[in-house]
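User: I'll paste a sequence; please echo it back and then give the predicted structure.

Assistant: Echoing your sequence first, then the prediction.
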Amino acid sequence: MSPLEHNQKLVHFLQQELNIPAESIALVQRHPELPYSSFPMLLWRYGLITLTQLERIFDWLDSGLSYSATQL
């Protein structure tokens, strides 16, 4: 899966599963100089998600990365 596809899936997860507003996601996406892996942490640092939501994102990322690795 390309980084762009992975990013799109993450955004979809954030909006559909966690009900994160598009405006919150857009705020963090304005920092393209930061590594993609920082995206969930920035949402949390800016107070846009809770610690519980952050944990769910990491769980989702973990499950997706495991799945991707098995596809190689």
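Residues 66-72 have pLDDT under 50 and may be disordered. The two ends are 10 Å apart (CA to CA).
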